[in-house]
Structures are given as C-alpha cells and as structure tokens.
C-alpha cells in the first residue's frame, strides 16, 4: 500500500521541453551548485537546458549568451564560488523593449521554462516577464518576428525561483543560498581577530554586510559570543551608548581580554540615523579609553568556496526547481523553492516578495517588532536567543530559584558541544537556577567532578566527554545527585547519551534521585540518533569531508576540492575516501552530495560485487569523456569484506589505462577543528530551548518542597523533525532504534541517495512524494511559528 501511494519522478517527462537557467543580481556561493543541479536534473528527465550568461542582460542580448548546456559542462563547478555563468545588473530588462527582445530570444530557442537564481529584485522581474509573456508574443507576431504557430506553441512561460543572497533577506525561506558560506567567512575572520585582540587587550568593531537585513550580523554574533550587535531590525533604545560601554567595561573587569562588536552595514538608531563603525569606535575610545580597531569585511563575505550546507541546499533546491517546472501548468503561478526547517517547500513567488517589501516598509515606519515577525521564524528565533544570552544584569539582580541543574557531555566529541554548554549555562542562570557542569561525563559524575558555573565564566575550552554509560556507576551517580541536590539534567551527546537517558529512566523505579526532568541534545558527527534529522557536529564534519587536507605524500597536501581540480590539470584520477559514522551512512551520503561523489557505499544500502563492477564501468565510461576526476566515498562499516583497500584495488585494476587511484582514510580529523557557524548556532539555539523546557518542567513537577518527575514526557530528546524542533520522550524513541547497529530504523537522508546518483549520471528511481504542493506563506507562518 505504501508503495502504491508514492509518487516517482519517472512519471514526469521533460521530453520536448527547454529550460533556461540564469543567475542575477549579487553573486552568492552555492549558485554554481544550483546551476549544476538544474542542468543535470533537466538533462536527466529528457529536457534541453540552456545557460543564460550574464543574467537578464544575456537574455536581452541573446546570441552566444544563450548556449545549450551539456552534462560535462557543469563538471568541477560544485566547489567554485560565485557564478560561472555570470551575473549583471540589467537596465534594459526593466524596459518593455528589453523584455520584448528577451522574449524573442527565448522563443527562437524554444525556452518556455525559466529557473531564476537571485534576490527579490531578480525574482520580481521574472514574475513581471511571465505576466507580460502573452502580450509580448502578440507584439512579436504582429511585427512578423515570430509566427502565430510559434506563439501558440510557446504560449505559457513557467517561472521557478531559487533565492541566492548572502544577506538571507528574503521572506518565506529559513536560509537563502550563500548565507551559510558568508557566515563561514565572517566567523573565520572573527576567530582570527580574537587571537590578536586577546594579545593586545583590544576592542574590535566589525562591519558585516546587510544593508537592509541584520541576519549575518545577528547569527555571527550568536556564533562567536560577541559583546554587542547592532542590526537594522532592532535599533538600540535611547541610552544604548552608556549601556554598551557598561557591558564592555564589565567584561574587562571579569578579566576578558577582548571585546567584539558586530555591526550590520545598515544598522540604525531609533530615529533611523545610521550607526557606523567609526561612530562606535570613537564612542568606545572617548568613554572607556580602550584600544579600538575597525575591520570592514566587505566583499570577502561573497568570496571563497561554498560551504557543505550551501552545496547541499543548492543541489536539493535545483532538483526541486526542475520538478516544479515539469509539474507546472499554464495556470500555475510563479513559485520560489524555499527551505522550511529541513524540508523543501514551494511558495508563491509574489507572496514572498510582497512580504519582503513589507519588512522594509515596517522598518521605515519604525514598526520594528512587526518587521522582525515579518522576517520569519528563523530570524525571530535567532533574535530571541540572542536576547536570552545577552543578559546585561549583574548576578545580584538575577531571579533566584531553588533548583539545581547539571549539564554534561557524553560520548565522542562533536564540534558545537561547547556552544551548547555555554548557551545552556547562561540561559539557566538568567532563569534563576544554579548551574553545575560535570566533567568527564557520567564517569566524572560518579567521582564527584561537579562544579558550579557562573554567568561570567568563559567557555573557550572543552568539557571532556567519556563514553561510559551510567549503569556501570549508577549507585555513585545517584549519590552525587543527592549530594548536590540536582533537580534536572541536560545531557549533550550522541548514541551513548541516548542510551544513558534510557538507563536513567529505567533506574527511576530504584532511585528517586533520577525522578527529575531530563533532556538530551543530539551531538554526534554520525547523526545516528533517533528523533532528529540533524545533530550538533554533523555540519562541521561534512565541511571537513569537502575541505579537509588529504596527505598523499610528503609534499602533496591538498584539499578535497583542490584534489578534484588537480586531476583536471594532470591525469585522470579517482579518489577513494573512507568516512566515519559507525553503521550510519549519513556522512558518506550527504558528504557525497556536497562533494559531487560518483558513488557512496553505506551499510543501509547493501551492495555486492556486481554493484561494484557496475560502478567501476560507469565511472570508466565517464572518465573517457572530458571529465577528469572521480570521487568515491565509503562508510567505515558499510561492509565487512569490501574494505577500503579492496575497493581501492578494484578501481585501480579495472581503471588501468583510463585513470589511476588514490585513497585516504579521514579518521578522527572529522571530529576536530573549529565548529562551523551552523553547528555553533544550532547548538546555541537548541540548548537555550532545552533549558527553557527544563525550567517549565521544574515548575510543573515541583510539589511539597521537592521535584518529582517520573512520567514519560519528563525525559525527552530535543530534535529537528522536518519543519520543527520537537521534544520527544526517549522511551517512545526506543522502538524507532536499531540498537545492534546503533542507528534509527528509518532515516530521512536515505531519500537523498537517488538525488546523489542522478547528479552522478546513474539511472535510478526517485521518490518525489515529499515534493511540495504550492503552499502559502501566511498559512505556513501561522502553523509553524510556535514550533521552533
């Protein structure tokens, strides 16, 4: 029955259709990945796909600016920043005559489907073009430039948009293509500046892009723990200068050797007057006498290679855009492919544009709270989290409760754990609780390695995490819970943390000390915990896979991306890479999608020697064309017999005369390095939400002078499920888990595997049941805004 209800894209044919793809407006990292996905998906379904170079200008000028794309023409494009097909501001397209010329150029090539990658201005122009289309064709018929038959054949123009903008200033989507990569550039600079600022006890004022939207400034401030942030949507109240200087001097008094202030380029005060970096510098120097420097990041934020997140987002959106074009009818309105939580959705383009314009109107009219709500749930939740963490009250002014909360890390390390601990401690203290940090996981807990934390504590270190499960020391842990009067637990970790919570819940019948609210935050690079689509640490690990330096000899140190480029400059070469993940193939699959892999071997999708042989033959045929590099990923536990060495030797032998092979086992470098902006932000937000849940449960279960919680919903995992963050009882998640292989029984990302195969030119079946029906932005917000 389940099989019968599924919808497969094989039923959607692109035969006889032509798709034009263009990038317009400001460039953004990830645009090339979107172009690549549109081209390959379009060709895969039988359509012709055309590059429209230089955006709308190329559409108006025609000629060589509109060229048919081939499968090979988008090779080695995935890892390149900017847009290789060019982008330009086009005055001609704003005129009726310019759009008439553009229509003629499209009709001459049979293009009636447009995929536009750009900002709200570019997408608005596309929608106007669509509305005028029939009139433009009538004019072309009357002038004799096209026949009536051609006008009838091309009577409808279908438009699908993808938002490419580093500012994340488009309503209707949680993230736009390029935003995550821009955050990478900002955080790289902030991390570098922090070392020099600490050395000289300096204050740094950083200006980031965002003329009309403060998303980059806000999220980078959250990710790096900035002392102050100024954004257009939240002008500081009168007297902010004194408050900011007081906060900076407080931090210096707490022996913090640096201050970071982040300013969006469009920051304003309550009177809509600009707040510039120089104004802030002069203020700090005049009032505090601190050595203060200004850094303006500028177009650095647009540059560099796209992050793993942007590559995956753009690839998913590009495929969804082609599906939307195939399903479009003459009456289908222009739509934009958006991201809601972890799900691709389609929204009417003009609803999103109108709401985006309403944001600016609200800001111009000083209705700033309304502007924040119009920005969408992602922006609003980031802002609310920032307000929680930027508590300016001193300890004596904080509320007091009688509750003690312990925070601990369990299992293998994952980048972003520190951000989660910092957020949990700060929010817990501002809610009035006494916060304890436990070192060395449950093993440290049993030994009494429990320390009280303060609001002014710094978290530029790692709370060590052990894999020991509590059952081994259950008596001693219960004793420490009693000694420190622990009323709630926040456990951060992977599968060991999940098993630990189950053991503590099971022990409640024997130890009343564990009858307290308990919450788990998933933090593991393997992303193998039931109840969540994403885990803290996975994004950093994915970036390690696509960017990590691989050592293929004493002097041969190259990144994955540079490896692909190096092959095109020398001989044809295939790289066999082993990833971590235990029995979970998330890293191999999603990393393969981000890196443009030709194959990814995982435990969840059994394979045999015939499959390996087929893959080798497929890759050999590809390498006989202009494609000169190949990438094969293998999950460490995908097969007991088909080891990395075996696969390397097989490809080496079968590829003789066509390509040679190199192999590398990435190992624990996937767990190391600085956390990505996504993991810092994700860890910060879910830890804050978890601590608020704990506060609510503590009040709910406080009776007769003590906390007593033994219901299923008092021990939960907080996870991302499709569009929302959801608290789920760990007992209920037990049935969803394969404990032998330490993976969930159902894993959402397996639906991405056909997408990876399609982009690698394999014939496969792709379930598009989740591909969105057209939704409406107002209904979407009303339904989901309270969920995250």
UniProtKB/TrEMBL annotation:
Residues reported to bind beta-D-fructose 2,6-bisphosphate: 467, 524-528, 573, 580-582, 636, 662, 668-671, 742
Alphabetized Gene3D superfamilies for the sequence: 3.40.50.450, Phosphofructokinase domain (3.40.50.460)
UniProt note on regulation of activity: Allosterically activated by ADP, AMP, or fructose 2,6-bisphosphate, and allosterically inhibited by ATP or citrate.
Gene Ontology BP term (one): fructose 1,6-bisphosphate metabolic process
Matches recorded under CDD domains: Eukaryotic_PFK (cd00764)
Origin superkingdom: Eukaryota
Gene Ontology MF term list: 6-phosphofructokinase activity; AMP binding; ATP binding; fructose-6-phosphate binding; identical protein binding; metal ion binding; monosaccharide binding
Region: N-terminal catalytic PFK domain 1, residue numbers: 1-391
C-terminal regulatory PFK domain 2, as annotated region: 404-788
Pfam families: PFK
KW Transcription regulation (keyword) present: no
EC number: 2.7.1.11
Annotated binding of substrate, by residue: 165-167, 202, 209-211, 265, 293, 299-302
Keywords tagged on the record: Allosteric enzyme, ATP-binding, Cytoplasm, Glycolysis, Kinase, Magnesium, Metal-binding, Nucleotide-binding, Transferase
Binding annotation for ATP: 26, 89-90, 119-122
Binding site for Mg(2+): 120
Domain Phosphofructokinase per the UniProt entry, residue ranges: 19-324, 404-694
PROSITE patterns: PHOSPHOFRUCTOKINASE (PS00433)
Active site: 167 (proton acceptor)
Cofactors: Mg(2+)
Locations listed in the record: Cytoplasm
Catalysed reactions, semicolon-separated: beta-D-fructose 6-phosphate + ATP = beta-D-fructose 1,6-bisphosphate + ADP + H(+)
Subunit structure, as described in the record: Homo- and heterotetramers.
Family: Belongs to the phosphofructokinase type A (PFKA) family. ATP-dependent PFK group I subfamily. Eukaryotic two domain clade 'E' sub-subfamily. Belongs to the phosphofructokinase type A (PFKA) family. ATP-dependent PFK group I subfamily. Eukaryotic two domain clade "E" sub-subfamily.
General function of this protein: Catalyzes the phosphorylation of D-fructose 6-phosphate to fructose 1,6-bisphosphate by ATP, the first committing step of glycolysis.
Name listed for the protein in its UniProt record: ATP-dependent 6-phosphofructokinase
């Amino acid at each position: 029955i389940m099989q019968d209800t599924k919808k497969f894209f094989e039923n959607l044919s692109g035969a006889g259709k032509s798709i034009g793809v263009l990038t317009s407006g400001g460039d953004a990292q990830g645009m090339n990945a979107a172009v690549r996905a549109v081209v390959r998906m379009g060709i895969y379904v039988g359509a012709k796909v055309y590059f429209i170079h230089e955006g709308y200008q190329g559409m108006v000028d025609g000629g060589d600016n509109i060229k048919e794309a081939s499968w090979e023409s988008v090779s080695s494009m995935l890892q390149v920043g900017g847009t290789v097909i060019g982008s330009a501001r086009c005055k001609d397209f704003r005129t009726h005559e310019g759009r008439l010329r553009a229509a003629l150029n499209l009709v001459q090539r049979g293009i009636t489907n447009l995929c536009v990658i750009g900002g709200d201005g570019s997408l608005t122009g596309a929608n106007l073009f669509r509305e005028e289309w029939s009139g433009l064709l009538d004019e072309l018929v009357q002038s004799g430039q096209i026949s009536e038959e051609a006008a009838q054949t091309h009577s409808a123009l279908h438009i699908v948009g993808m938002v490419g903008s580093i500012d994340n200033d488009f309503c209707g989507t949680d993230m736009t293509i390029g935003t995550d990569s821009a955050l990478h550039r900002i955080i790289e600079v902030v991390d570098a500046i922090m070392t020099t600022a600490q050395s000289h006890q300096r204050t740094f004022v950083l200006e980031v892009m965002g003329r009309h939207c403060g998303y980059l400034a806000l999220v980078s401030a959250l990710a790096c723990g900035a002392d102050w942030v100024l954004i257009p949507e939240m002008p500081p109240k009168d007297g902010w200068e004194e408050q900011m200087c007081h906060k900076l001097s407080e931090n210096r008094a707490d022996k913090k050797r640096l201050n970071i202030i982040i300013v969006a380029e469009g920051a304003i005060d309550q009177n809509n007057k600009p707040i510039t970096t120089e104004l802030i510098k002069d203020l700090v120097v005049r009032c505090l006498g601190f050595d203060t420097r200004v850094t303006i990041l500028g177009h650095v934020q647009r540059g560099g290679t796209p992050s793993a997140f942007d590559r995956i987002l753009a690839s998913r959106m590009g495929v969804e855009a082609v599906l939307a074009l195939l399903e479009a009818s003459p009456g289908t309105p222009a739509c934009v492919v958006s991201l809601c939580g972890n799900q691709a959705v389609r929204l009417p383009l003009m609803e999103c544009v109108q709401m985006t314009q309403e944001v600016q109107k609200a800001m111009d009219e000083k209705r700033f709270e309304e502007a924040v709500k119009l920005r969408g749930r992602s922006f609003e939740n980031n802002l609310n989290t920032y307000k929680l963490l930027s508590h300016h009250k001193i300890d004596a002014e904080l509320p007091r409760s009688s509750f003690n909360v312990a925070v601990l890390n369990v299992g293998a390390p994952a980048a972003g754990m520190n951000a989660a601990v910092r957020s949990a401690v700060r929010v817990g203290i501002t809610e009035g609780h006494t916060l304890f940090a436990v070192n060395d996981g449950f093993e440290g807990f049993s030994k009494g390695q429990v320390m009280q934390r303060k609001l002014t504590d710094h978290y530029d270190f790692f709370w060590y995490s052990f894999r020991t499960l509590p059952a081994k020391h259950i008596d001693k842990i219960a004793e420490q819970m009693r000694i420190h009067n622990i009323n709630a637990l926040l456990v951060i970790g992977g599968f060991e943390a999940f098993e630990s919570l189950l053991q503590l819940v099971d022990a409640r019948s024997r130890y009343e000390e564990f009858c307290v609210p308990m919450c788990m935050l998933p933090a593991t690079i393997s992303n193998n915990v039931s109840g969540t689509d994403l885990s803290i640490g996975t994004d950093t690990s994915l970036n390690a896979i696509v960017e990590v330096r691989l050592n293929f000899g004493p002097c041969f140190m190259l990144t994955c991306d540079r490896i692909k480029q190096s092959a095109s400059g020398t001989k044809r070469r295939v790289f066999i890479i082993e990833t971590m993940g235990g029995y979970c193939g998330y890293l191999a699959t999603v990393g393969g999608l981000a890196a443009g892999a030709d194959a990814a071997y995982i435990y969840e999708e059994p394979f045999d020697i015939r499959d390996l042989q087929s893959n080798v033959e497929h890759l050999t045929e590809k390498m006989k064309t202009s494609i000169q590099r190949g990438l094969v990923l293998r999950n460490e536990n995908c097969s007991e017999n088909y080891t990395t060495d075996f696969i390397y030797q097989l490809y080496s032998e079968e590829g003789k005369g066509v390509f040679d092979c190199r192999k590398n086992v990435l190992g624990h470098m996937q767990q190391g390095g600085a956390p990505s902006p996504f993991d810092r932000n994700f860890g910060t937000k879910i830890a804050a939400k978890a601590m608020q849940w704990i506060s609510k449960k503590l009040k709910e279960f406080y009776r007769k002078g003590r906390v007593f919680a033994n219901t299923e919903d008092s021990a939960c995992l907080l996870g991302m499920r499709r569009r929302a963050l959801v608290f789920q009882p760990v007992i209920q998640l037990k049935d969803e888990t394969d404990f032998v292989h330490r993976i969930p029984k159902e894993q959402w990302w397996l639906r991405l595997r056909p997408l990876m195969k399609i982009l690698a030119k394999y014939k496969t079946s792709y379930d598009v049941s989740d591909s969105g029906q057209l939704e409406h932005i107002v209904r979407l917000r009303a339904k989901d805004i309270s969920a995250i």
